[in-house]
Write a structure and sequence with these properties.
The structure holds two protein chains of two kinds. By secondary structure, chain A is α/β, with parallel strands linked by helices. Chain A has 20 helices and 30 strands. Classes of the chains: A alpha/beta, B mainly alpha. The interface between A and B is medium-sized, with 24 and 26 residues.
Amino acid sequence: MDKKYGVYICTGCGIGEALDIEALKGVAEEEGLPVQVHETFCSPAGVDVLKKDIKDKGINTLVLAACSRRVMFDVFRFDGCIVDRVNLREGVVWSHPRSQFPVLAEDEKDDGVHFDRVQMMAEDYLRMGMARVEKVSLPEPFKLDTLSRRILVIGGGLTGISAAIDAAKAGYEVTLVEKAGALGGHAATWRKQLPLGWPYAATTAPMLQDKIRELESHSGISVRLNTLVARIAGQPGEFTVTFKKPGEKTEFDVPFPLPDDMKVDANGKELDVETLRAAYLKFNEGRKDILTLDPNGEKFGAVILAAGWRPYKPTTDEFAHLGFGALPDVVTNAQFETMAKAGKITCPSDGRAAKSVVFIQSPGKGDDADFDYAGSVTSLVALKQATYVREDYPEDGKAFVFYQHMRTPGLQENFYKSIQQDTGIFLTKGEVVSVSPNGRGLVVTADNTLLGERVQVKADLVVLATGMVPATKDDPVVNLAYRQGPAFRDIGLFKGYCDSNFICFPYETQRTGIYAAGAVRRSMTVEECIEDASGAALKAIQCLESTNRGCAVHPRSGDLTYPDFFFQRCTQCKRCTEECPFGALDDDERGTPKPNPTRCRRCGTCMGACPERIIGFADYNIDSIGSMVKAVKVPSADDYEEPPMRILGLVCENDAYPTLDIAGLNRLSYSADVRLIPVRCLGSVNVIWIKDALSQGMDGVFLLGCKHGDDYQCHFVKGSELASIRMKKIGEALSSLALETERVAQFEVAIDEFDKVPSIINTFVESVEALGPNPFKGF
Amino acid sequence: MAEAIMLDPDVGFIKEVGKLGGGDLKKCYQCATCSVVCPISPENKPFPRKEMIAASWGLKDKVLASQDIWLCHNCGDCTTRCPRGAKPGDVLGAIRAYAVADYAGFKKLGLMVRDPKKLPLLLAIPAVIFLVAGFLSNLVGLNWLNFAPQGGHALWQADYLNNYLVDIIMIPTFFFAVGVFALGLKRFVAAMHANALAEGKSHRQKIDPAGMIQALIRIVPTIIKHQKFNECTENRERSTAHMLVLFSFVGLFIVTNCFFFAEWVLHIEGPYSQFNPVKWLGNIAGIALVVGSLLMIKNRLAKKTSVSSYWDWYLVWLVFALGLTGMLTQVLRLGGLYGLSAVVYFAHIIAIWCLFAYTPFSKLAHLIYRTTAMAYAEYSGRGFK
């Protein structure tokens, strides 16, 4: 497109009072660009000015110097036009009030000593905006040739059945596969279910059969029993899925990556590329490469993973102090449920009535953690199972629950309340220290209970509240034909659960187009599973429809850009393939990445990783950000006696940039010597930008992004973590240039820490000032 | 590590506490708001959180042996603040009701006093005793029971029901009550001391009587001034009524002893002159008793947040009846309605007998147990002045 530029400066919201608008206009005019000024561009009259320019003058590339791009985005959206929002309001005048950054007196102007930091800041931002629009283009959506709208549901338990029904109700064709010979999963093995609706006071009869009947009434759902997924190849909208029978071996069984111990030789030295390749092929003999599509495979657009759970199996002696394994009358909650389903509760040892049953919620041993893979559901199940004791022995049955945590979320609190009222059910917090034989029965000893320091209870039967292990812990299940491997990438935080972020992005796994629901995400009740199924079904539909429009699904919903590769310069280093948090890239045998745009979430991690800088997006690329960096005027000793520092901040637009906007909104000020550029994710930061900044004389660079680690907040899972690894490496490069490594830093900030962010910035600026100016300044 | 305590829940106890006004006991979820808001709970092992869980686990012996159930003055601050509506104040009241019968012995009688259906029988007992004794006295020519006394002078109730007859029955009844209390107190103190040692609520390994008496003397001002009641926010107005009733009982006790002395030692026959200062005290105390018990009834009726069980009502109505019949007897006599006065007097005698005989089994037993528990808490270093 032929760009026709227009620069628009808004003077509303205090901008006009704080800045020298004439001088600002001069910045654009210097470049020969037409400038318009208006007191409120967001008003109907202001928008009319813009629309009139677009219509009459053919302006299609607008630089709008006004408020943050996070506000008024719908007001300033013009089809077919590139719009850059220069953030003068939150980023300059609100966060740098004239009371703290006074304007120059008449005699101070152009004296070679004094300068107006805030005006300099506004002018730089305007230059940066103008530089950016020169380098970006309008995105053209990536569209698949053929798009399948079929949804595959893996798992025929209550979650899978519910998800299939929900997707079918929305008009989508669904195939549900179940590895067993019958539908129902675990729900078919229970005596009673937890309450499913108001008043949440009592257990209910199992409702599985009703759900199965509902499933069968939908013509759009086909069910395949005794079926596994051998592989899922391709990308959302056009997955090619190969099915197989349990135990069957096919050439389309998915290849597995080499285990780590096979990647090294006998001396522990890493094998060379050729040997690795040979070892990989040998390891996966008889299996087709991931890039070979099964000609008989079936096409699906999106996948719902409802593979469910299995009961935790304690290892030998794992709970020896609780007698598990040695004492036959110590069982897990899953075993107890099976016993309860079969009939009256009796002791496995001698078949006598179990009238005193102790439920243990935490294994003890010094900490208060519950059993692995437990959760609120194991609390609720203990309460449910306590009612079995009372049902079977209403006269003299007693159920005791020793817990460290009694979790009954939401209205399930009513269930807890009703259980409390039963005179035969006894609850206390406490740490169970031992279960030991006592004549024919057992005696349970607990410390630190609500009843006293050390108490004992006689029991006929002891039940351990062991957890629900997600199916994905044992087996990839989805068997993705992805170069990063067939399973969801294990980021070491979720113990085999397959979310990408529990809180922010439920249902979304780290593989676009695959949505998890039910116990595969965390231990859940039936009620939660059914709700989860709806969520995952909606996500799958969102994926299909977004893919159909050629835009990103999430979290950058609606983004029409996608990464573009300049393959001629690719060195097959594989960094992009390996670092992509979502496994979007599959390299071929030479190592050249094969993009799968509909798998991509547009975070730009590949762009940040690429040492050759051949990856970019239409509106966000190495050149567009690099040009913004270069557009910053770096004053030197030639300009002023004591020139101000120039410090670049590359700021994650998901959390950190909003935080800065909020700081501005709250009139919290920070140094006016920083120049901030929003980036899609710190993972997308290419070190060349940092080098550019330093080589043109900027004194320091900081990255501001999300927290990483156990409670990471990165929208793209690994971005800020990858950035911190890259920052360590750049430190070495800096020292080789005789630049202090302290000139580059990375900071973490949460979206609600707007009160902290000014001091983060100011502290860094002060530390750079202490180092003195960049020695390369002025070269 | 402390020695493990074997827990064996007594479901019957839980149900009984429920019937006695602690029906919301099992709603407790152990947040301890009650112990925090309680203005009078000691800092060391505060109540009533631990009593709530022990009761909901049916740990009868542990709960009944606790001094804390008596330290509680049922001011209701905990009940108002309880986020779950478990009404700890009422639960402790119910536990006390259960405890009184448990300490006292004579289990059957204890259960009867707690049971509204047995009230007619309980009232009939003294009526029968007095009538039978009266007839017997008439048979042997003492003529202590006279339905139509004659005389030139104004009649009074003793002409119908002789004072000797009344005293001969009342004195053993009084000592029966004292005996029951003594045995109950012995059981209670032993259990309370063992419990305090086990739960770390006492600094003293042994109970030294002199120390206990000193502690008792230290807490007397607290009781007289109703200091604990006044620390409550929820139910402070109760303090006035309780004080009126307590002091009127003290006054009436003095008056009764004076006239007993006059009758048996000095052989001065009544009715005594209205100018007699002892008579003044008697009249003031009688009025205070009526007013105080009426206030109690009014307060209980107005208080919707806490439970008033039969156990509570029995005592306040009995006290009210006692005061009312006493005053009425005198008023009717002064008004010359001698026959009617005698009938009311008979009711008055029945009320007094009930008060004496059933006190160790009724709510009034708190007079002994609470005082003892407060003295023990003070003695054992937990502090309850």
